From TrEMBL:
Alphabetic keyword roster: Membrane, Transmembrane, Transmembrane helix
UniProt source species: Spirosoma validum
Keyword hit for Membrane: yes
Database matches in PANTHER family: LD22376P (PTHR31061:SF24)
Transmembrane segments: 12-29, 51-73, 85-103, 115-132, 139-156, 195-216, 225-244, 256-276, 288-310, 336-357
The keyword Transmembrane is annotated on this UniProt entry: yes
Name by which UniProt lists this protein: DUF1624 domain-containing protein
Heparan-alpha-glucosaminide N-acetyltransferase catalytic domain residues: 7-156
Highest taxon of source: Bacteria
Amino acid sequence: MTISPNRLISLDALRGFTIAAMIVANFPGSEKFVYFTLRHSQWNALSFTDLIAPIFLFVVGVSIALAYTKYVTQHRPKGGLYRKIVIRSLKIFAVGMFLNLMPDFDMTTIRWTGTLHRIAIVFLVCSVLFLNTTWRQQVWIGLVTLIAYWLAMTLIPTPDEGKVILEPGRNLAAWLDRKYLPGRMWQGTWDPEGILSTFPSVVTGMTGMLAGRWLLSSASSLEKIAWLMTIGLFSAIAGYFWGLTFPVNENLWTSSFVLVTSGFASMLLGALYFLVDIEGHTDGIKPGIIFGANAITVYVLADLFALFFYRMKVGSLTLNELVVHSLSSFGLQPELASLLYALFFVCINFIPAYLLYRNKVFVKL
């Protein structure tokens, strides 16, 4: 594949490495033995794994800016583009539903939310906003959304409780999900990708749109990097202090969580942009580019491969359990054995990703 001179190689690599990190977090060798930072935080906290989803949504936002800026600046007709955006969103959502229904396809236990579902919604809303608002309007929409979410969650009593509470399953977002969200919820009485928390997750995508718009500006490369790093740092700091009253929490996708994670994503993109696109240090990023070329396809393949690796038994153990047991028997710490299996599973998924990339097959949902 020949990389276009106008293409951000750093963004492709960031997208791909984020997908690889998702696979590591989603498919450990054993759920019993996982390093703390490779687990999602149970509630108020921030682990490495908690950063993965918001960074991917940030990348979605940057990609929207790179793909659709010409429609805004050149005043191109948008009618056909809206149709493509809606269709793509529906396809991503449908694939998410397919993964939720696997392997039994039992409609009585259907779940209508998930990672791909949220990506589809964020892509749809952010794309429409990008095509119809200025960057200043997007800043105000994002700020108002985060403040409104904060006030709603901290001032409106949960009807079931009669008071404001931010505990798992007992907060306003969980109550809305129980009342209005159809199907099964991930945690029984609440869902981390529920209705109310989707609003601030859209803002995460919007922060990526603002970063992408800045990267396309006429500013010098060093100015672009300086602003990405500076704004990212101040965003993370602001999120930390906001978190003192509205805790950083991925399950609720709190306003402070948006600022902290978007800040980290901005700094990470700025660092990669400097190292890769400006300085030309491309050694070691090729796997990220390969994964990033078919990111959602790789994500889906990982779920499909898991049906084999996590269900096929050798004796009384599944394949993943066998690997962890074997490595542990050689004296390795169980958590390390579990991580090594996850990295092995990433390599398994790299094979089809590489074959698609080498044959210039890019699956676009």
